[in-house]
Structures are given as structure tokens and as C-alpha cells.
Amino acid sequence: MTGGFSIEKIRETPMFFIIGRPRTGSTLLRTLFDAHPNVIIPQEWPMLLLLHMRFGKIKYWDKPKLEMFYQALFQPLRIPFWSIRNWPAIDLEALHQNILGCEGDETMETLLKVVYSHFNSFFPKTEILLFGDKNPAISNHPELLAQIFPTAKFIHLVRDYRDNLVSLLNVDFEMPNVALLTYRWKYSYRVIEKASRLHPSRFYTLKYEDLVSNPEFHFGCLCKFLGIPEDKSIFGFHTKQKEVEANFPPEIVNRYFSSLMQPINTRKVGVFNQKLTGNQIKVADLVAGKTADEAGYQRINTKFSLLDYFRVTPAIAYTKGLYLIGKSVKVLPYKWMVWLINKPSFIVAIYTKLFASKTK
User: Fold this and answer.
1) CA dihedral 236, 242, 243, 246 (to 10 degrees)
2) CATH assignment at residue 139
3) Average pLDDT, the chain
4) Helix (H) or strand (E) holding 197
């Protein structure tokens, strides 16, 4: 048994992913699914693709390989939420024993679902019909995820690129440069939609604005897409405020959960009109280009000068270079790859010094 499941149940329980840019409402959507009695969806855990790169070619798992897999779960990119304060988010001893019990020709997908099956939610659960994952960090690799999890489905959550900018400029997730952040929004949208066209039955695109405007309807559509029953009790998720505040440090609550302490609302839709300058909006409209139109967002600015294009070129070139480096890193030995991911390069340092301005 693993986390209350038989290994047979683990194998047959399907998986889904919430993908898209950070700060698009993915934490809200994850919380709604977490509140669903038939779904297990842990907090973010950005180790998934690294584990696949290290262990994905293994066909037969013996005890030493399984022990290596278990130890790899706690390497530098692990997420801290899985064990914090008084909340036993995961029973590590039980997880260890159940990982070691997976000897044989198990797939990487099954081993990862074994890990997910041990996640202990704040919300009560009954029969588990679905495992979920929410990780913006792996969202630019939908085709690879579709290969690792051949039956998984994907929810592509999209938000107005300018509102997304406002949210990202207020946190320290990424370099606070308007052109750079908008290009990342554009790149993510195009990569995910390309995968969606290749696997149309497995992808569902949803706008953040639609979700918060009519949550019951759109979440109901997601439940039908994923094959799970609707449960309207999930919309009382904000009643868990005391549990969250009792088990997470205040800085974590303020950074990640402050907007989840109240019912769903639309107050952050269109906030860019008050929070961004005219120049920032112009830069965002320029970089987003026709991709904004394809995603269903109307640009305020559609005509630009050569000087406008010249000003955004460094950020775009830099971001394209980072994506190219990211693709190249995958061919390196695993230890080198992890080291590079955790060490900012001199290129990042130079660009940050020269161009990292919120008004660029």
C-alpha cells in the first residue's frame, strides 16, 4: 500500500497538469482542485523534470536505484511546503518504504504518482480519482510532459499579459523588466498552444478572467474535461484561513496565499490600467504582438516606431539566449545541470546591472 493506495490503484489513477506562466491564477485553481474530495494535487514541486532526466531511462528498478530516487527527492530544487511547522504534509518514513517497495519494471510515471499519493491536504478526501500537478517552472515543456505521462491531461491557464506583468513586478520571482516578462508570457503561450494543437483532446485552455468571472461554470467544465464529479463545496476553500496561518510562516502566507483568504472575485482583472504607466503598456503591447490578439486580449497600442523596437531588443535577445541555454543544458551530465540551474551566470549578472529596470 502507498499512501492508502494499492500500487494497482496508483497505476490506473490518471494525472493532470495546470500549466502556464507564474501569477496567472494557477495557485487559485490548484486550491480549488485541492479542495475537491476526489483529487490530490500537492504544492509546487519543481523536481519533476530533473528526476526524469536523471532516472527516465531506467527500465527495471532494484532497491539501490529506488534508494537513489528517494534521496533525489530532497535535492536543492525541492519545494519547502511539503513539511513545515505543525503540518505533516507528507509522512517521509512511509514514503521511503513505499518507494523501496516498487521493485520491478515500474514506469517513471508510477513512481512520481507514488510520491504524490503521500501528500496530506488540509481538505478532507474520499475516493481519489485523479492526481494533479501545478508547476509554472515546467510549463514550457508540455510536449515532454505529454510523453512522460501519456494519458495525462493539461489545463492551460492564461491571463492578460499586462495584468500578469503587474503581479510579477510585485514579487521577486523573475527579473522585473517589462519587455523580458512579456516575451516570456508570449513564449509560454505559443509553446503550450503548439502542444495543444498536437494533442487537442488532452488540452483545455482557460482564461483567468473567465474563471474568476464565473467560477462555478468554468470549474464545472474542467471537471467534465477531467472526468471527475462536480462538487460546489470547493468554493468554500477560503474557510481554511486559520489552518493556513497556523502552519505557514507569515512571510509565506503573505507571499503565496494572501489572495486565497477570501472568496473568488474579479478585483484583479484589468488592474494594469491603474498600475502600469503608458510606456510600460506600450512596451508590453509591442512585445506581445499578434500573440496577444490570438489569446483574446485587445492591445491598446498597435503602431510602433523603429526606436520602440530598438529599445526592447536587448531584453528579447537576452531571453531567447536563456531559452537556448536551457535547451542546451539538458545534454549535460545531471550533476552539472543541477549546478548550472542553481548558479546564476555572469550573463544574468551583467544584464541585471544594465537593463533590469521596471520601466524598461
Assistant:
1) 160
2) 3.40.50.300
3) 85
4) helix 178-198
